[in-house]
Amino acid sequence: MTIQSAISAALCAFLAASPAAYAQQPPSAAPRTETLTLVVLQGQNATHSVTTKTATQTVVEVRDQTNRTVPNARVVFQLPASGPGGSFPGGRTTMTAVTNFQGQAATSGFVPNDVLGKFELKVTASLRDKTASIVIPQSNLTKVEEPVAKKSRKTLWILLAGGAAAGAVAGVVLATRKSPGAAGGPPPVVAVPGTITVGGPR
């Protein structure tokens, strides 16, 4: 066999074996991307009073790609630089917190400014190379409406108190009109708030 024939045979053997060799190599695994998720627990569409300077603090929860809560994550709350909004302690428009063992972080000391209208509170969470961000709509109002349940309870108490007062007045008026005169007159009337009881011997 000549040298040229030997080279050709070796080249053919290499080309024949190459597909099999490549087929035996496992495909490279795709890189796994880990992300964070922010869940708003309190503060979504919150309203703040510019008159009384009362506000609803915002609470968020950080979760990983398996929906488990993430402690020790860094959370930054950022208010608008101008327009409706407010400030955190020290007159700052940003506040940084760290999630607790439940993966939760909250604002503290937020005070609305005097500008009426809607604004967006931006929240960013990070842990090592993982990040997440969310925008929470909120508003500054002159008067903050009470929750429906609280308002309903107050209305119920007003109705009950009004009914008791009306019953007491009716009892007093009846007692005044039918107060006993001389001996042998009509039996006395005892007025009790909300009820009327007629007593005396029959």
Describe the protein.
By secondary structure, the protein is of the alpha+beta class. It is built from 2 helices and 12 strands, in the order H-E-E-E-E-E-E-E-E-E-E-H-E-E. It has helices at 3-24, 148-177; strands at residues 37-42, 46-49, 59-63, 74-78, 86-87, 94-98, 104-106, 111-112, 117-127, 130-141, 189-192, 195-198. The strands form 4 sheets. A 5-stranded mixed beta sheet has the order 2-10-9-4-6, with no helix packed on it. A 3-stranded antiparallel beta sheet has the order 1-3-7, with no helix packed on it. Strands 5-8 form a two-stranded antiparallel ribbon. Strand 11 (189-192) and strand 12 (195-198) form a beta hairpin. The longest helix has 30 residues, at 148-177. The protein is elongated. The chain starts with a helix and ends with a strand. The model is unreliable at 155-160, 164-176, 178-183 and 189-202 (pLDDT under 50).
